[in-house]
Amino acid sequence: MLTVHTSCAAFIFNIGDTIMAILNRRDFIKSSGGLAATYVLSSSPKACHAKQADRQWTVYLAQDKHLDYGWCGSPLETESWMVSLLDYYLGLAEQNKVVWNIDSTLWEEVYHRRRGNAGKKRLRNAIRKGQIGYVGNYAVLLWDILDTETAIRACYGAVPIEHSTSVPARTALVMENPGITCGIANILTECGFDFLGRGIFTLRAKSYNHHRQKFPLFWWKAPNGKRILVHWDIYKNTRSWGGYAEGFTLASLAGEKWQAVGVRSFEDRNSPEVFRKRKEFIRQTVERYRGYGEDYPVSSILLLGTGWDNWTQTEDFSIFIRRFNEESDGNIRIVDARYSDYFEAVEREIKEKNLDIPTLSGSFGISWEEWAAHLAGLTKRFREAQRMLRLAEANQALSKMKDRSDTGNKNVKLLRYAVSQVLKFAEHSFGGISRKQAAISAGVHADAVTQAMYIARSLAPKSSTPASSPTVHNTEKTTFEWHGGRVVFDPDRCAVVHLKDKTGRLWISNKQTPAFGNLVNTHYHKKARPDSIFPAALPSSTELVARSLVSRKTDRGVEIIAEYSQDGFLVESTWLFHSANPWIDVTYHLRDGWSQAPQTLQFCFPVALDNPTYRYDASGAILKAGAKKAGGDNLPGANPELYVGLNFAAAGDKDRTVLILAPDTLLWQFGPDAVCTSTKKAANTSAQLTSMPMMNLTQGDRQIGQAGWRDWTFRYRIVLLDEPFDAVRAIQESQQFATPPFLQVPDQPPAIDGLAALGIDFPGGPLLAFKVAEDNQRMILRFWNVLDRKVRGSLKLPSGWTQAEICDALERSKKPIDVTGGQIQFSAEPLGILTIAILKK
Q: Measured between alpha carbons, how far is 778 from 184 in angstroms, rounded to an integer?
């Protein structure tokens, strides 16, 4: 019997749908013996509103195992444990005893490699039947060390699963790492994801994560204007609410301890005492979400991360679910769920009740991306591999358009394999549970980037302009004219201490400390501080000792080579003040100096700008540093100190911009005090950009020795611009330093000669990719509009290619594009990423 009052029909019908969904789930049918239940709902409006206040709750328990691919074992060991778990849970799922989830598409890649086509077919069949849930992300990644195109590729593994199972890839997980910038929201929405699940570990984030707004469910609005529904409870601890292993509480109540090495099996652990404690945890979970009030208006709750770091085989969570539902009074039900079951239930409830869900727009910053600085030498190679792969892919696409030979197909497969290796480098496990495992992890990262670079270099076009040394004309003083202004380079400090332009405006002041280009190596106490990202700095008395200096005028400009020792490092810095452009190139070559003690290494670039805005290019977006309330992009709870700039960092006011290009490093600090040492405090500095290529503050993961490297080279280009910050100009300048990060940017020739035949005209930003489509039939072009307005573009179709279409970022067809006279016209939305496919007849 179902009684409905018209004033609350939407509410009643939603409850009815929820009841039917529960009845149709095998765990409920099994527990109730297949008997139908009768629900009576009051016809009184007052009673209806009371029911809304006292919701009937559904807890979606998503059983899974958080995948640490390189933290607890070698790849051989890890993959054997992965296969063992999948064998076990597939066996139970196929008997309708358990629903299990894979937290990344890497599970399928490994299962296919280890169990062959039959294994892949078995896994996909279970996904098709709803017995196994999946998400679209490749692995648990450090998303913000990936360039924009590589971050998109991190979602490509979802599409073949979706196509073969007809189960839409709508959900992604970004787990454990407390940070994530809003550029990733751009990427996920352009890839077609509707839902994002999050759970974290506050390692290195304890001083700021607790400032997060108290919204466990919210719409996250991306810079492109699209939005994604996010479930991310407020962090209590790692193994409870808000943690990446919040569901593990159910295991710990049964006595299970952390054990990340080796597979363990457990029978039913639901003793009367354990069952009582588990029931109480579910009750507490409901009370927690009830306590959010209007900030959590839905009646569904997600618990995931039941396996934590462990490799556990057990059916007892599903047994608990069935027994709980048998004894439930109907106010709380548990579903043995896929990740997507929760989100789809919430989506329905939001639509049917027209619920108001908070919308957040901004960045949660970065956190564990700092681990890239723990392997600085390998990170530099990783960054180069990404750039080389884009060139190699474009080169192969141009060849394949003319010749559809088997060799071309083999090269395309090779390039796809190289992309997977780049993604493995960005997997979040940069250290290990022991020194031995940290060494294995460093080796795994080195192996991945070596394979990617080997393939990329072999298939990329050869440079037509080989590097050459500058022609020396004569020696030059360290004080000299430059572009009508004046530069002073201090031989004792091995840095620039004064720079004025031809109008007399000061860019670098001789009163600033540190000086422009100074190296700062800071050592710290081992104990972290609860109110600071950085531990307390130790006193340092080691000063710079200049060894030699050469200053000379060349055909390119003034070159200064300074050799010095500082804090145990032997340093050679080479400066080039370009005569043709407002560019200052500086390359630091460092030897020795690094120890395993907690420390950071910075290169400091103070500038004479008053209250500038700091910007940096993250994956998927160009962002402003700083808090939202101060005009930046950081939401409360974001890292207030460190940022990742993939190609550049900038400081600018209404008239001028200082742009610093850094192809080898990632981490930046901004502000007058952006220097960590306790003994070399910044002074007389109004603005500063500080690059931090090396650090080792996450001592617990034991990746503290820079993988044994004793030799590093870091390159920078400082661009002084008499104009406010312009996103397109920043992209254009980035393209002209080191290996081009993009295939083509406005008003510059393409990075590969053959692309000129396409006649690409797109003034809004770079061409990110030109590649053979995953279906091996189409060609894909991807554009990124870095401007906050719609931008039109055009291109010419190559001979024999007569059709074009708009796709999403995962190459799913959306709508055709008209072709006129062999050309197509298109438009990119503000700050959006546009993917176009071209086809033969």
A: 26
Instruction: Tell me how far CA of residue 793 lies from CA of 724, 790, 799, 834, in angstroms.
Output: 25, 10, 20, 11
Q: At residue 17, does pLDDT exceed 70?
A: no
d(CA 358, CA 375): 39
CB 88 within 8 A of CB 119: no
- How many CA atoms does the CB half-sphere of 526 hold within 13 Å? 6
d(C-alpha 438, C-alpha 431), whole Å: 5
Q: Which amino acid is at 577?
A: F
Is residue 65 over pLDDT 90?
yes
Place of tokens 């270099």: 457
Torsion of CA 468, 457, 403, 390, to 10 degrees: -90
Q: Quote the mean pLDDT of the chain.
A: 92
Amino acid at 416: R
Contacts with 466 (C-beta within 8 Å, 6 or more apart), sequence order: none
Residue 737: phi and psi, rounded to 5, are: -125, 125
| Residue 476 pLDDT level (bands cut at 50, 70, 90) | confident
Q: Would strands 485-490 and 495-500 be described as parallel, antiparallel, or unpaired?
A: antiparallel
Give the pLDDT confidence of 327-379 residue by residue, as tens digits: 999 999 999 999 999 999 999 999 999 999 999 999 999 999 999 999 999 99
Among 5, 82, 108, smallest CA distance to 48 is for 5
73/77 Cα distance (integer angstroms): 6
* Predicted pLDDT of residue 31: 35
Residue 551, CB-side half-sphere exposure with 13 Å CA sphere: 14
Residues composing the chain: 841
Q: How far is residue 689's CA from residue 668's CA, in Å, rounded to a whole number? A: 7
CA angle 318, 323, 324 (to 5 degrees): 95
**Closest among 362, 445, 424, 431 to 628, alpha carbons compared:** 362
Q: At what angle do helices 272-291 and 316-327 cross, to 10 degrees?
A: 70
Mean pLDDT (whole number) for 133-143? 98
Which residue's structure tokens are 């509410």? 11
755 in Cβ contact with 398 (< 8 Å): yes
CA distances to 146, 168, 220, 819 from 806, rounded to whole Å, are 24, 19, 24, 12
Quick one: pLDDT at residue 373? 98
pLDDT of 257-300, one tens digit each?
999 999 999 999 999 999 999 999 999 999 999 999 999 999 99
Q: By three-state DSSP, how is residue 108 classified?
A: helix
User: Is residue 604 within 8 Å of residue 668, measured between CB atoms?
Assistant: no
Contact 665, 645 (CB under 8 A): no
CB 542 within 8 A of CB 536: no
Cβ contacts of residue 806 below 8 Å, gap of 6+? 813, 814, 815, 816, 817, 826, 834, 835, 836
Backbone dihedral angles phi then psi of residue 127, each to the nearest 5 degrees: -65, -45
**pLDDT (0 to 100) of residue 100:** 98
Q: Give me the helix-helix angle, 75-93 and 106-128, nearest 10°.
A: 10
* Nearest CA-CA partner of 180 in 138, 140, 150: 140
pLDDT at position 675 is 87
> Which H helix or E strand runs over 719?
strand 711-721
- 3-class SS of residue 22: helix
Q: What pLDDT was estimated at residue 279?
A: 98
Contact, 347 vs 299, CB < 8 A? no
Burial of 127 (0-12, 13-18, 19+ CB in 10 A): buried
What is the crossing angle of helices 339-353 and 9-24, to 10°? 160
Q: In sequence order, what are the residues at sequence separation of 6 or more whose Cβ sits closer than 8 angstroms to the Cβ of residue 153?
A: 138, 419, 423
Residue 712 clears pLDDT 50, i.e. is over it? yes
Contacts 24+ apart (CB under 8 A), 628-632: 628/362
Q: C-alpha angle with apex 146: 144 to 151, nearest 5 degrees?
A: 100
pLDDT at 542 over 70: no
